[in-house]
Write a structure and sequence with these properties.
By secondary structure, this protein is mostly helical. The protein is built from nine helices and four strands. The protein has a two-stranded antiparallel ribbon with strand order 1-2. The protein has a two-stranded antiparallel ribbon with strand order 3-4. A hairpin with a 5-residue loop joins β3 and β4.
Length: about 190
């Protein structure tokens, strides 16, 4: 199985955001949350309004069990504020139509989140291999390109080494490919 990629170009991130915004607000907010906070989709889907009422999101990561405190980007704060206007503190941010045994709405599942991303990629004719982890990786690539600090990304992602972060984001591969194509021409 091929690993999923980030959305490499900011122009494409904007194209995806516009696509989601025009189709379904929930999916737009899901996408923007994913590319602005860099969490795994399993940590994003169960979020409730009460999680994002302040400037920070504080959760225990499902995979690691570690407490994570993340500042919400001002643009994401505005998106979330508009989206949650009129919602109760206990409402899910990304509800599905399915209900639990008590009749409460359940969040959309990872499979549905994957389908949302894949459907957008197909519709937009995006050539990269995308999945739910693409949102997290897109956050990482955007952060890396702006700050060039893999040590900080390692900490954000809870990776054990900087090499793991380079590999995870595909930064090393991208740099190698760029360098190979930039090798000076052989003069004949």
């Amino acid at each position: 199985m091929r690993s999923v990629e980030p959305i490499w170009e900011d122009e494409w991130v904007s194209i995806f955001a516009k696509y989601f915004r025009e189709r379904k607000e929930r999916d737009y907010v899901l996408f923007m949350t994913g590319v602005y906070i860099g969490l795994r989709v399993s940590d994003i889907l169960p979020l409730r309004v009460s999680h994002i009422e302040n400037t920070h999101l504080v959760i225990y990561e499902q995979k690691t069990g570690k407490l994570k405190r993340i500042i919400l980007h001002p643009h994401l704060q505005r998106i979330l504020k508009d989206y949650t206007a009129g919602m109760k503190r206990t409402d899910l941010l990304f509800p599905s139509r399915n209900r639990d045994r008590r009749g409460r709405l359940k969040p959309i599942g990872r499979k549905r989140a994957y389908e949302i991303i894949k459907e957008a990629a197909v519709t937009l004719e995006y050539e990269g291999n995308l999945g739910t982890h693409s949102m997290r990786k897109t956050f990482g690539i955007r952060y890396y390109r702006q700050y060039k600090d893999v040590a900080e990304l390692k900490q954000i992602f809870n990776h054990t080494s900087e090499e793991e972060t380079y590999r995870y984001l595909g930064i090393l591969r991208e740099r190698i490919e760029s360098n190979i194509t930039a090798i000076k021409d052989v003069r004949v």
